[in-house]
Write a structure and sequence with these properties.
By secondary structure, the chain is α/β, with parallel strands linked by helices. The protein has a five-stranded parallel sheet, sandwiched between helices. The longest helix has 17 residues. Bound molecules: 4'-phosphopantetheine (PNS). 4'-phosphopantetheine binds next to β1 and α4. The site of 4'-phosphopantetheine has 10 residues, from β1 and α4.
Length: 163
């Protein structure tokens, strides 16, 4: 039984995240999407941890072997706790590389039994990020097709009411 973690802040999840999760689910027997509390990231997440988990649960409901859970610990500790042998992350343009490389090195240092693996983003999602989605939506632009429809609705709703 090969189990992998797909970690991230997912504020909010995008179709790029979903593509990586789907592709990881095709490789591993079980994929656990691990949603980090990340209270300090970018001035605090727009969506609560419960909202971010709920978005992902709805979007991955059709995928056998995929589950979603929140976490607020070291990723390698979660991997050990859940008996996951791999951390799977999406890799977009070169801009991702340095940060991802740093995290992979640090995680390797913390626990050599957990492998970090990257799945390269497809061209459609190469430049897609949660921050870009929020910025577009904040200025009234459409992010339809970049995030699942249920996330799009909640995003528009949240931004209309203000943070
Ligand atoms: O969505 P992101 O910003 O790429 O996700 C980053 C995340 C949540 C995977 C990373 O910050 C993380 O693993 N946080 C848990 C704390 C931890 O283990 N830190 C050490 C590795 S740098």
């Amino acid at each position: 039984m090969k189990r992998a973690l797909c970690p991230g802040t997912f504020d909010p999840m995008t179709n790029g995240h979903l593509d990586i999760i789907e592709r990881a689910a095709g490789i591993f027997d079980e994929v656990i999407v691990a949603v980090a509390l990340s209270p300090d990231k970018g001035g605090g997440p727009l969506f609560t941890i419960d909202e971010r988990v709920a978005f992902l649960r709805e979007a991955t409901a059709h995928l056998a072997g995929v589950s979603v859970r929140p976490f607020d610990s070291l990723l390698v500790d979660l991997a050990r706790e859940l008996d996951a042998t791999a951390i799977v992350k999406g890799l977009r343009a070169v801009t991702d590389f340095e940060r991802e490389f740093q995290m992979a090195q640090l995680n390797y240092r913390l626990d050599r039994a957990v492998e970090t693996m990257f799945i390269v983003a497809i061209p459609d999602y190469m430049y897609l990020s949660s921050s870009a989605v929020k910025e577009i939506a904040e200025h009234g632009g459409s992010v339809k097709g970049l995030v699942p429809d249920h996330v799009n609705e909640r995003l528009v709703d949240r931004l209309r009411k203000g943070r």
